[in-house]
Amino acid sequence: MGKSLIQQKRGKGSPRYRAPSFRYKGKSIFGRYEEGKTMTAHITDIVHSSGHSAPLMELKYSNGEVGLLQAPEGIRVGDRIETGNDVELKAGNTLPLKFIPEGTSIYNIESNPGDGGKFVRASGTFAKIITKMDNQIVVELPSSKRRAFSPECRAAVGIVAGSGRTEKPFLKAGSRFYAMRAKNKMWPQVSGTSMNSVDHPFGGSSSHAKGIPTQSNRNAPPGRKVGKIAPKRTGRHKR
């Protein structure tokens, strides 16, 4: 099976992959802390960033650093959160997975210890610890898929705020267009065969009639390499 590619420019006269990162408030990651020590942080503000679906809390750590992190439900400006091994299990606090009991709602889980958080960051999402073993901890993600993490990976306790975001309808295409444009999402997604021939290699010639294979040549230049990329090999795999 081939793999679908997106290598066309996004709209008339625009670059292919350019995110408006100059409008983003910053990276949302855990603050640095020393192993075995407890670090506190005060919530100075709750801000909106167009690069994140959830509201972000602005934190001022006890070591003087300032950072951003997804705000959990029930948090407010002026609250104090903690990071460490034996901190209280309350919304916003950060602990290694090995110190979090099974069944606790968590978010912003690190993929590798110290990377700041990679999983479960969208608004209204949360994960749960299913099984704890010596060398790995199994977590059920919002997609119901289960994944094993290192016991040293950190996670924040609680549910990401903004859970009602998907319940409000856009009502019209213009609202959806500007919401997707803020994050550089390709919308609307139009089939290449429905375009004109100047807009896509599959376009033109009686609209939906392709006329050419959807699997692209491996040596095709950018702009022509669309559809399915050539597989590494074909036929049965003989051992």
Terminal residue distance: 20 Å
CATH level 1 name of the domain at 21-83 and 91-165: Mainly Beta
- Characterize the largest beta sheet: strand count, sense, and whether it forms a barrel: 6 strands, antiparallel
SS-based class: mainly beta
Enter the CATH topology name of the domain at 21-83 and 91-165: SH3 type barrels
Question: Could you name the ranges where pLDDT drops below 50 across 5 or more consecutive residues?
Answer: none
Give the overall shape, derived from the CA principal axes.
globular
Work out the radius of gyration.
23 Å
User: What would you say the CATH architecture of the domain at 21-83 and 91-165 is?
Assistant: Roll
Task: Please write the string of helix (H) and strand (E) elements.
Answer: EEEEEEEEEEEHE
- Calculate the mean pLDDT score and round it: 86
| Percentage of β-strand residues | 15-25%
Count up the helices. Answer: 1
User: How are strands sequenced across the largest beta sheet?
Assistant: 6-11-7-8-9-10
Description:
The protein is mainly β. The chain contains one helix and twelve strands. A six-stranded antiparallel sheet has the order 6-11-7-8-9-10, with no helix packed on it. β8 and β9 (137-140) form a beta hairpin. The two termini are 20 Å apart. The model has no long low-confidence stretch (mean pLDDT 86).
